[in-house]
Amino acid sequence: MSKRSESAAEVFSALGDATRLSLVTKLGARPQSATALADGSKVTRQAIVKHLQVLEGAGLVKHEKSGREVLYALEAKRLHEARDFLDAVSEHWDRAIERLRDMVED
Amino acid sequence: MSKRSESAAEVFSALGDATRLSLVTKLGARPQSATALADGSKVTRQAIVKHLQVLEGAGLVKHEKSGREVLYALEAKRLHEARDFLDAVSEHWDRAIERLRDMVED
DNA sequence: GCGAAGTGCAACCAAATGGTTGCAAGTTGT
DNA sequence: ACAACTTGCAACCATTTGGTTGCACTTCGC
């Protein structure tokens, strides 16, 4: 809840699409333009652009104009935050499991 | 791409909703029934059930019938997988950043 | 046995999502 | 100057999503 998990939901939602996830991994290698990313992809450049905007809205990506092209790059900070969220939940859960086990064991 | 990131997308998509994320954290404390989870929530039990089904479809949750009620519990394995995916991408990225820095430095 | 509690199923609805196409406008190299 | 390339914007479309309501069915407690 709170603001924390709202933004977390936004990040996860942005990652929750196969095309977008593919974009993230591609951008993990190097910054690229929308047309470059659309090359070899099943979908249109416009679709790619929309996906990049979603990723940017979630703070996972930033863009920078360079002449006539626009380069998109990954923003690792948000990825780390998302990972930390998962760590927090699963740690709680792991402890809960442990407690349950302790109660049952004899 | 591949099967790996398809299922990853499914997991992230399941987590990409504020209500669902809240359910995950609640289930992180202890297994609970849909009606218990719906108590104090803004939305209907039916909506909660649908969300739980989505989470279960992504393998994040499992359910078990106990008398007249149905208890939902977290499945930590998938959370770990999702975290590992984020680790992998951000590690690539961190290395890429490093390489770029090395090329620019003098 | 009967009412209350908990669940499951189905129909339905508005809004968001992922995608397309067409076209105008700003760069670039020759 | 001009053709080629890259981007941006808008309209439009089908499907998915998140949510509701109503009702039938099982299970518990007394």
Report on this model:
The structure is a homodimer. By secondary structure, the first copy, chain A, is α+β, with helices and mostly antiparallel strands. Helix content of chain A is about 70%, strand content about 15%. Chain A has 5 helices and 3 strands, in the order ααβααββα. Chain A is elongated, with a radius of gyration of 18 Å. The first copy, chain A, starts with a helix and ends with a helix. Chains A and B meet through α1, α2 and α5 of A and α1, α2 and α5 of B. The structure holds a DNA duplex (30 and 30 nucleotides).
Write the layout of secondary structure elements.
The structure is a homodimer of 106-residue chains.
Chain A: H1 2-15, H2 18-29, E1 32-33, H3 34-38, H4 45-57, E2 61-66, E3 69-74, H5 76-104
Antiparallel strand pairs in A: 1-3, 2-3
The structure holds a DNA duplex (30 and 30 nucleotides).
Keywords:
homodimer, alpha+beta, three-stranded antiparallel sheet, 5 helices, 69% helix
User: Going across the major beta sheet of chain A, what is the strand order?
Assistant: 1-3-2
Shape summary of chain A: elongated
Rounded mean pLDDT score of chain A:
90
Oligomer: homodimer
Q: Ranges of chain A with pLDDT <50 over ≥5 residues?
A: none
Structural class of chain A: alpha+beta
Please report which band the strand proportion of chain A falls in: under 5%, 5-15%, 15-25%, 25-35%, 35-45% or over 45%: 5-15%
Largest interface: A-B, 38 and 38 residues
